[in-house]
Design a protein that fits this description.
The protein has helices at residues 122-130, 147-156; strands at 25-29, 32-38, 47-53, 61-64, 68-75, 78-82, 86-90, 95-98, 104-108, 112-119, 132-133, 159-163. The protein is mainly beta. It has a domain at 32-137: Jelly Rolls (Sandwich). The chain has a 7-stranded antiparallel β-sheet, covered by helices on one side. The chain has a 3-stranded antiparallel β-sheet with strand order 7-6-9, with no helix packed on it. Strand 2 and strand 3 form a beta hairpin. The chain starts with 24 loop residues before the first strand and ends with a strand. The relative contact order is 0.24.
Length: 166
């Protein structure tokens, strides 16, 4: 491997994606630090990100029209809420796959670090569009989300916001 392979941008090496630990495109998205490891911009057919979230972080209840979404919890614990009133507890080592079209959301019970896989890679374009480039590899400052902008951005990326968690 080339000595600087982990530092190459996606445009320079679209066939191979290599990131050193902690490396990748860092985005502040809501109260998350999202570190993109692979995406369509890099030539991947899927999206993979490492997400760090504070305790009490939650998503709205939502549905992806195109992307399947999978979660692999590395650290911490969370509750995933699925349509039909089902709730799934997920801690370190847990894997949850949610097919496109299935309404879901989650709330963290503690700080969480997890891998998020989306197929195809469209969800990460939503993260980029709504989020901002992280100036530091840490959680963003606490701030209330711009809900109308979140809903409009989600809609442009094939994500339907259904409301608060059940």
């Amino acid at each position: 491997m080339h000595a600087n392979a982990e530092r190459r941008s996606c445009a320079e090496a679209p066939e191979v994606i290599v990131h050193a630990p902690g490396a990748g495109e860092a985005i502040w998205f809501l109260d998350n630090l999202v570190t993109v490891k692979a995406s369509a911009r890099c030539g991947a057919r899927f999206g993979l990100a490492e997400n760090s979230l504070p305790s009490g972080s939650e998503t709205p209840f939502h549905r992806h029209r195109e992307d399947d979404e999978s979660f692999y919890v590395l650290e911490g614990g969370m509750t995933l809420f699925l349509e039909g009133g089902r709730a799934v507890e997920a801690g370190p080592g847990a894997f949850v796959h949610i097919p496109h079209g299935v309404a879901h959301g989650f709330r963290t019970r503690s700080p969480v670090r997890m891998l998020v896989l989306c197929d195809p890679a469209g969800f990460l374009e939503f993260v980029r569009d709504f989020g901002v480039a992280a100036p530091r590899a840490e959680l963003p400052p606490a701030a209330a989300p711009d809900v109308p902008r979140l809903v409009a951005t989600a809609e442009r990326h094939g994500i339907e916001i259904l409301g608060p968690l059940p």
